[in-house]
Every structure is written in structure tokens, then in C-alpha cells.
Amino acid sequence: MKTFFATIGFFDGVHRGHQYLIAQLLKAAQDRAMSAAVVSFAQHPRKVLHQDFQPQLLTTCKEKVRLLKEFGVDECLMLDFTPSLATLTAREFMQLLKVQYGVQGLLIGYDHRFGHDRSEGWEDYLCYGKELGMEVLLAKPYMLPDGKAVSSSLIRHLLKEGNITEANRNLGYSYALQGIVVRGHQVGRSIGFPTANIHLDDADKLLPADGVYAVRVEVKGKLYGGMLSIGKRPTIDNGSDRSIEVYILHYDGNLYGQPITVHLLEHTRAEVKFSSKEELAMQLQKDKEQIEKLLKESSIL
After folding, report:
1. Residue 67 phi/psi, 5° resolution?
2. Which pLDDT belongs to residue 118?
């Protein structure tokens, strides 16, 4: 069986704090001639334990695995979080990792707790490790230059405020939405701005604040600039449903049924109700010019 030095966590967002932990994991694994593994869960634990809980994920399971691999992790041990798994003590969980998955060492996040009642901490893990013959190390925390810690909850708060610039700074990459292009109401096409309407791959993915965003669009293996609109489209009385639609700059073609990824770069304005479609079209032209300029200045176009 392959042996692993591992760390444990849900790793939603795989943000800068996670990336710092992963760098420490890679060093520990390399020093011991082991493979580096992240132990995580395909489902949000709270969703399994509380069926009415609605996660607001920064990364879907697929996105999370891709990012972990990109940052150098050799193996993602994605466990099914079940009610029976939730009853395990920290010691029992560590023993499971060693016996069933070949985990010979653990790097513990400085504030991380696991086990069914989360009452045990670093000293307990160290003791259990000695009993089980498993090396246990304590990770160093990651802090921003201003002394603040990076967290998934902070990034969610920033996204809900529409502060995509600061959210991306904490993530270490551009926040992205992935989905399939579906047929919409064709309103954009009728006013000269045909948009690709996006149905997200995962309904638990967090949608940022309503409004218009400068974005980079990945479709059919190519990258384009674009402007994304998130919201209830009040000008055309869309009701309470939130739509996600992107106007792709310098693109002409049918995208229905195609997978699409939109990387959010900057929030350019809030959603506004206009008096007519004509007024909306005039504003969209201004949005387009502003976003084209922004993307060119940032060397994206």
C-alpha cells in the first residue's frame, strides 16, 4: 500500500490559507519520501447531518479536486461523509486513515478540530499519533500582510457584498462559475446583446452579489473577455428568479448545451431597473465599453 503524509479538512475554496497548508504538507511528505494527500469529503458534513442546511460553496467537489491537484497534492482522498463516520472519535478516525488508506503521518491545521464532538485538540491528536505509530505535526497559520487570517467564511462575505477584487485576493485566483449554456428569454438578442444563459453545475455553489462583472470566459477550449450579469432582471420583470448570463466579447456562435466557465474579475456596477429596454441597451453599451477598456488595461483582451 502506498504511504501518505496527509492533512484533513473540507478545503472549500482552496484559498491562500489552504495553499499555505498544502505547501507545508508537500515539504513534510517530501522529507519523508511519502506521497502528499488531502483527506476531504465529497459532501458538506453539515448537509449530511442536517438535511435542511444549504451550503454556499466556493468550490464544487470537482473544482476542489482540480485545484488541490494544481497545487501539488498527489492524492485527494475524498471520503463519503456518512452519519456513521460522524460518530467516530478523533482517535478512531486517525486509526481508520492509517489502516484503510495508508496515512502514516498527519499535518494538523493550527485551528482544526475533528472527531464526533470536536472537543479534542492538538495535544490529543499528538497523543493518539504516538499510540497509533503515526507522526503528527502542527501547521503554521497563514496571515495576510494586514495581520488578518484568510477563511472561507470571509471570502463568502466578500462575494455576497460584490467585492470580487478582495475575494480573489484572498482566494489567490479568480472566483469562477461553471455550468451549461441553456436557452433563455432571448431578450438580450433582441436589443443587440445576445447572452449565454448559464445553468450552474451545482445548485450549492455561491452566487456573488447581483450586478455586472468584467469576466474571462472559457468555452470550447478558448478564452474570451466578457461581461456577466447576475440578478433578477427587473427591467423585464423577471420575477424572483436570479439569472446568470454572460455576453461574450468578439464571439459569434451557438453555445446551447456547451459547458462554460466564467472567471469573475471585477464588479463594475450594481443591478438597476431601467425605464425601458432601449435605456437598458444604452447602459449595456456603456458597460461593454467600460469592460473592454478594463480588460485591455489588464492584458486580458
Report:
1. -65, -40
2. 65
Residue with C-alpha cell 464532538? 117
Residues of the chain with pLDDT under 50: 301
Assigned C-alpha cell, 167:
475575494
CATH of domain 4-138: 3.40.50.620
pLDDT reported for residue 115: 73
Selection from 92, 78, 71 nearest residue 27 by Cα: 71
Cell numbers 491528536 label which residue?
A: 125
Q: Measure the N-to-C terminal CA separation of the chain; round to a whole number of Å.
A: 49
Identify the CA nearest to 21 among candidates 84, 68, 86. Answer: 68
Alpha-carbon distances, residue 197 vs 158, 178, 221, 229 (angstroms): 24, 12, 18, 10
**Domain covering 174-297, topology:** Elongation Factor Tu (Ef-tu); domain 3 (2.40.30)
Tell if the pTM clears 0.85, that is, is over it: yes
Q: Which amino acid type is present at position 37?
A: A
Which residue in the block uniquely carries the three cell numbers 488508506? Answer: 101
Q: Is the CB of residue 261 less than 8 Å from the CB of residue 177?
A: yes
Q: How far apart are alpha carbons 95 and 232 in whole angstroms?
A: 50
User: Could you read off the pLDDT of 133-183 as tens digits, one per residue?
Assistant: 999 999 998 887 777 789 999 999 999 999 999 999 999 999 999 999 998
Q: Give me the pLDDT at residue 82, please.
A: 87
Three-class secondary structure of residue 55 per DSSP: coil
Task: Give me the helix-helix angle, 122-132 and 90-101, nearest 10°.
Answer: 40
The partner residues of 199 in beta bridges, in order of sequence, read: 180
Grid cell of 276 as nine digits: 425601458
Query: Following CA atoms 243, 246, 252, 258 in sequence, which dihedral angle do they give, to the nearest 10 degrees?
Result: -70
Closest CA to 287 of 258, 261, 249, 255: 249
